[in-house]
Amino acid sequence: MSLAEAKIEARKAARVRRRAAHAADVGAGAGRLSELLAGHRGVPLSGYMPIQSEIDPIPAMAEAAAWGPVAIPVIEAEAEPLQFALWEPEMPLVDGPFGARIPQSPVFIRPEILIVPLLAFTREGSRLGYGGGFYDRTLQALRASGPVLAVGFAYAAQVAEALPFDPNDEPLDLLVTEREIISF
Ligand SMILES: Nc1nc2c(c(=O)[nH]1)N(C=O)[C@@H](CNc1ccc(C(=O)N[C@@H](CCC(=O)O)C(=O)O)cc1)CN2
Ligand SMILES: Nc1ncnc2c1ncn2[C@@H]1O[C@H](COP(=O)(O)OP(=O)(O)OP(=O)(O)O)[C@@H](O)[C@H]1O
């Protein structure tokens, strides 16, 4: 199996596990994320507007927004890093590419903490996304230009024993699930 085929298979398996976890979600994840973010108050951070069966970080983002700048990802172009637009609870949003909501009038910032959505993770800190390479490109660019903490946010059930690895894959620094905070 080629690497690309292995990633497709891993994504399929991960979607099944994530969907089941989402159906059973009682909302415990955002509390754990808040716990972690409380140690970094005022640091500019990026969350995300959940799509599909992603775990919901919005309550933790809303709390963090009381202390410092919070942003959400915006795709400016294919094969380019993501940009991050300032976000406030209840602000007007419009549909962006792939169904993720984005601000109507984006004001971009450089986050130092990225809450990263994912399909699957390993206990060694690898991550599998949707295959756009957006977070890989973004983390590579941010890591080259200054401090950044990549915090995966996922259901515990999204763990994989191993994931197909390509040299462009950027590792996570931390991972938060509804059960625990794992540092790599
Ligand atoms: N909530 C959230 N926002 C985000 C991301 C994300 O992963 N989650 N992104 C992180 O990159 C960017 C959006 N990128 C995405 C890339 C592909 C797909 C996706 O669903 N792809 C389809 C296949 C392609 C298609 O529909 O044409 C799929 O997964 O089946 C979703 C988001 C920016 N915003
Ligand atoms: N920094 C980079 N420079 C060039 N190509 C890259 C870079 N990062 C990723 N890519 C390419 O983008 C494609 C998609 O990458 P990959 O399958 O790892 O995406 P993903 O991590 O699942 O998605 P995402 O990061 O958007 O959540 C691959 O062909 C990968 O080699």
Description of the structure:
- With 184 residues, the chain is α/β, with parallel strands linked by helices.
- It has a single domain (3-110, 119-148), classed as NagB/RpiA/CoA transferase-like (Rossmann fold).
- It has four helices and eleven strands.
- The protein has helices at 3-23, 29-37, 58-64, 134-145; strands at 45-46, 70-74, 83-86, 93-95, 101-103, 113-116, 120-121, 127-128, 149-153, 174-176, 181-183.
- Strands 3-2-1-6-9-10-11 form a seven-stranded mixed beta sheet, with helices on both faces. Strands 4-5 form a two-stranded antiparallel sheet.
- The longest helix has 21 residues, at 3-23.
- 32% of the residues are buried.
- Residues 7, 128-137, 140, 166, 168-169 line the site of adenosine-5'-triphosphate (ATP).
Quick recap:
This protein is an alpha/beta fold and 184 residues long.
CATH architectural category: 3-Layer(aba) Sandwich
Strand content: 15-25%
The top level CATH class name: Alpha Beta
Helix content: 25-40%
List the domain count as a whole number: 1
The mean pLDDT is 97
Low-confidence segments, given as residue ranges, are none
Largest β sheet strand count, sense and barrel closure: 7 strands, mixed
The secondary structure category is alpha/beta
H-E order: HHEHEEEEEEEHEEE
Distance between the termini: 29 Å
- Number of helical regions: 4
Q: Could you say what the CATH topology is called?
A: Rossmann fold
